[in-house]
Prior knowledge:
- This protein is of the alpha/beta class.
- The chain is about 45% helix and about 15% strand.
- Strand 1, helix 1 and strand 2 form a beta-alpha-beta unit.
Amino acid sequence: MPSSIQRVFVAGAGLMGHGIAQVHAAVGLSVVLYEPELARAEAGRERIAGNLERAVAKGRMSDAERDATLARISLADDPAAVHDADLVIEAVFEDVDVKTELWHELDGVAGAAAIFASNTSSISIGRLAEAVSPARRPRFVGMHFFSPVPVMPLIELIRGPETGEATETAIRDLAARLGKQVIVSADRPGFIVNRILMPFLGEAMRAYEQGLGTADDIDTGARIGLNHPMGPLELADFIGLDICLGVMRVLDEGIGGDQFAPPQVLVDLVAAGNLGQKTGRGFHAYPRPERAGR
């Protein structure tokens, strides 16, 4: 177990992965951003550069801090680049087969003392840990960030059945360095946040498909009537409707009950390729006119 995490390997440079890489580099850690196709890793680094540039423009970061943060991020398309990492964070698609295949591969090339942390938002940590050797499992943990990672100050820590005390301590210490607050969840479907959130989003979707109100009216009701910063349908679009559907299916399979069943309107939108903000259409069309220029 590394006494102090200094080298981080982030597998996945998408919505979550690039943000995870950014926050670790911003506190002085060396980061390898991995994708099997280098162009995707380069795209992730470009998103980081854009985030940092906006921070400079708003006076939150100096030019020197921006340059130093970017300099700490290297790119890789070879999983062997994980060999000297103290911490490996997986942030790939929310699919158990995709994740377990990656973890099995990385387990064969990572250092024996490296901590393995999954950013899964719903899949059992114990199930994912089965992909690695028994000797690795005490160093396997859930480390669920929230989007956008540089802004959201929460990490959900999930201990699997074999996760060791030293692993939890190391993740808590790292979270403090990142300026994040930790909550600990039992290793059950959806953990804490999505166990609460997905039934709320699902009920808003069912209200919409039953014609209770327009998408704008439902979202405005939550924003104004419940004092939420974002309406539930807009939030689902922001998260990604494919991700919402995947999490709801995990909850439906693992817990059951009408409140966890994916609404048909969500299934239909995902089947049509309308995944929310990232595709330009979900429950709303993007960019939304009232948010232009913001």
